[in-house]
Amino acid sequence: MLEHQGSCHCGAVVFRFNAPLITEAMLCDCSICRRRGGPLTTFTLSPDALKIEAREGALRSYKFGTEIATHHFCDTCGIFTFVETRLTPGEYRVNLGCLDDLDQQALDIRSYDASAL
Ligand SMILES: [Zn+2]
């Protein structure tokens, strides 16, 4: 297991979690993800597993449609950091673009057809 650390652009939201070496990512084609972009973890993290440190008031969230998925972003820089997923409510997928030490170019990207579910 490795400790992965990430943040939004301005640093108001920092997070970390333990997971094996990350070699693949998921691109979701739902109405928000296809506008926003950003490769997601292929695995989900429980609230206990994702350690979030956010400056007070920094973390904002957005819901739409079924209002199950909760998309979290930084109030200052606007960067999307993680999402509480629709398929596994309460669990998170992380925006891999926010990780400190990850070569995005090396990721095996898998498309995920959310609209077909
Ligand atoms: Zn920020």
Automatic annotation (TrEMBL):
Keyword annotations of the record: Metal-binding, Zinc
GO-annotated molecular function: carbon-sulfur lyase activity; metal ion binding
Domain CENP-V/GFA: 4-113
Superkingdom of the organism of origin: Bacteria
InterPro entries xref list: CENP-V-like (IPR052355), CENP-V/GFA (IPR006913), Mss4-like_sf (IPR011057)
Range of residues in the leader sequence: none
Keyword check for Zinc: yes
Entries under Gene3D superfamilies matching the protein: 2.170.150.70
Keyword DNA damage assigned: no
Pfam families: GFA (PF04828)
Family label: Belongs to the Gfa family.
Entry protein name: Glutathione-dependent formaldehyde-activating enzyme
Upper classification of the organism: Bacteria, Pseudomonadati, Pseudomonadota, Alphaproteobacteria, Rhodobacterales
